[in-house]
Specification:
mainly alpha; two-stranded parallel ribbon; 28 helices; 55% helix
């Protein structure tokens, strides 16, 4: 607890005796009052206490600089609070803005529009600009700016008769006023090509089909019968309007009039999404020319094979889908539209198409049903067998190993291999990591039995034993003993109590390995390579490397891979990756790629992993 904030909160409470009296009254009455009015009173009091805490925290901040990024989203906060705004968010914001010696910086690439469109009747972008100016300049200076803007407009109209002298006078005065408060910075200002960030790109597959026209005809007929207005602009922007226009007048009225025979006759069933098609994972007609172009530029080129966006500055050459020339530069696509129906329709249809391909890549006969999805067992399970932990390979993937984070660092290895002057391959990085990890493992493996079957426990125990042998042992023991991230991950992920108990057994076994070691049998021949793969790509170790680097950069020091806070954050990230890899679509994608057997987990691994 921050004692300074606690004292500030106490002082703020003492300045509101009525609030304290309400609190004491409710405390004295305890649980005796349970009706709806009493519950409302309790919730209102909690809200008022939160506002009081927020005010005390704002006073304790003492900021030098307040930055509002994309401030147009919070334009209401820039207006002065009225007497009716006591304790609302606007009042809190202005209490922050008025801090002594604090300066406010507003950032936005698109702070306001130059004019108001026909369909934006609730907006007045010119008025928004003047409100922003008033916030930055104050009332008097903003009033003078508004006068100059009005004079500039009149001079524009009269320029053909009166010349441009008055016009230029207003222009210069406006510029002088704005330059005191507003700066416009563009990264292209220093380049010869002012359009250097723009490139014309012809959208493929933007063809209009007969089905598109039938869809328009259906929506138009229904809209005319219901008196819901013209649907042309909606139809040009999104498919399956009658399915996705949930909050529009057309859909709301349609729900009410659904039983009307005249309305039912106006609907062509072929223009609607069919549940049977979706359940069978059949390919859907995308229903819109623009959406076909977007799909051809993303899903159709294979983007459904990418679990995440390819790196913009990779350490080494990718493999599999991440080496596909069409995909290595794949990035996000921004879709702009004035209609609320567009995000729902585009995301639903494209997500279904990507999911369909992922699921069918493993089993062409799979159905989009709960039963078929339930048949796919999680890749990273936490389970018991014969009352003993049976998913320690999962623990090994999630465990943030300090030794591997440092010595199997792909960035460091790529640099050592000459990445500054040439493209380094994944095979080269893995080979060098295997060599380094093999040297680290040698003191652990030289005393292992040379005869008998290979002991599969080496795969998950090796990272723990590496940390046990090196300087990270004490820090690792303390972290595993006290970390809330490790001891209660299931509670934050919606897992069952049984799985939470099973996970506790896994953690207990890992702690025993650190404390007592482990009597292991013959070393698997590929242990150095498998352990190197954990160091290069294990979610826990990768996350630890990233978090430790960020913390080091902030502190101006070298990364501390044994730091408990960094390991807590890394484990939470890895646990989130576990959830991702247990999703049916992801499991199907990984299992549906050309497989190769690996002895690390006994599971099928894709070549591109």
């Amino acid at each position: 607890m921050d004692l300074g904030l606690a004292e500030a909160f106490k002082t703020e409470l003492c300045s509101h005796p009525a609030l304290l009296a309400r609190f004491r009254l409710l405390m004295d009455e305890g649980d005796d009052r349970t009706d709806e009015g009493d519950r409302y009173e309790r919730e209102t009091l909690i809200g008022d206490l939160r506002q009081t805490l927020a005010r005390s925290c704002l006073d304790a901040l003492e900021p030098d600089l307040i930055i509002l990024d994309e401030f147009q989203r919070f334009r209401d906060l820039l207006e002065e609070p009225t007497p009716d705004d006591v304790d609302d968010i606007r009042n809190l914001a202005h209490r922050l803005f008025q801090q002594t010696d604090a300066r406010t910086l507003l950032l936005s690439a698109t702070p306001y529009k130059m004019y108001t469109l026909r369909d934006e009747e609730q907006d007045d972008h010119y008025a928004d600009f003047l409100k922003t100016a008033r916030f930055l300049m104050g009332d008097d200076e903003a009033h003078l700016l508004a006068e100059d803007l009005r004079g500039f407009r009149r001079a524009l109209i009269d320029v053909g008769f009166a010349g441009d002298r008055v016009l230029m006078d207003h222009k210069r005065r406006i510029e002088r006023r704005l330059r005191r408060f507003i700066a416009r910075t563009e990264r292209l200002a220093v380049s010869a090509d002012r359009n250097g960030m723009l490139a014309d790109h012809q959208m493929p597959e933007t063809r209009l089909t007969e089905a598109d026209l039938r869809s328009y005809a259906t929506a138009d007929r229904v809209s005319q019968k219901l008196g819901a207005g013209d649907v042309t602009d909606y139809w040009k922007s999104a498919p399956y309007l009658l399915n996705f226009m949930s909050d529009y007048k057309l859909k709301k009225t349609l729900r009410i009039e659904a039983a009307n025979p005249g309305i039912a006759a106006a609907v062509d069933p072929s223009t609607l999404l069919q549940r049977a098609q979706v359940d069978a994972y059949e390919r859907l007609d995308l229903g819109n020319a623009r959406l076909r172009g977007l799909a051809a530029d993303t899903v159709d080129v294979g983007a459904w094979q990418l679990l995440w966006v390819p790196p913009s500055l990779p350490y080494y050459q990718g493999r599999g889908a991440y080496a596909d020339p069409r995909l290595i530069t794949m990035t996000k696509r921004l879709v702009f539209s004035s209609w609320n129906v567009v995000p729902d329709a585009v995301s639903a249809i494209l997500s279904y198409e990507a999911e369909r391909r992922m699921m069918l890549s493993r089993d062409p006969e799979v159905q989009n049903t709960a039963e078929d999805r339930a048949k796919l067992r999680g890749l990273l399970t936490v389970r018991r067998q014969d009352d003993r932990p049976a998913g320690m390979s999962t623990f090994g993937l999630l465990y943030p190993c300090a030794t591997l984070a440092e010595h199997a660092d792909p960035l460091s290895i790529a640099r050592d291999l000459g990445a500054a002057t040439r493209e380094v391959t994944a095979e080269e990085v893995l080979g060098e990591a295997t060599r380094r990890v093999g040297e680290l493992l040698a003191p652990l493996t030289r005393r292992a039995p040379a005869e008998g079957p290979e002991d599969q426990r080496w795969y998950w125990a090796a990272p723990l034993l590496l940390d046990r042998r090196r300087a990270a042992r004490a820090a690792t023991e303390a972290w595993l003993a006290t970390s809330p991230a490790v001891h209660a991950p299931a509670s934050s992920s919606g897992e069952s109590d049984d799985e939470a108990g099973t996970w506790a057994d896994h953690v207990a076994l890992a702690r025993r390995v650190l404390d007592e070691g482990l009597n292991l049998g013959r070393v698997p021949s590929d242990l150095p390579r498998s352990t190197a793969l954990l160091g290069l790509g294990g979610p826990g170790t990768c996350a630890l490397r990233s978090v430790a680097r960020v913390l080091a950069r902030v502190a101006g020091s070298r990364p501390n891979f044994s730091d408990a806070a960094a390991r807590d954050a890394a484990f939470r990230i890895a646990w989130g990756f576990r959830s991702l890899f247990n999703v049916p679509e992801v499991m199907s994608l990984l299992r549906g790629q050309p497989p190769r057997r690996t002895r690390c987990t006994g599971a099928v691994q894709p070549r591109r992993a």
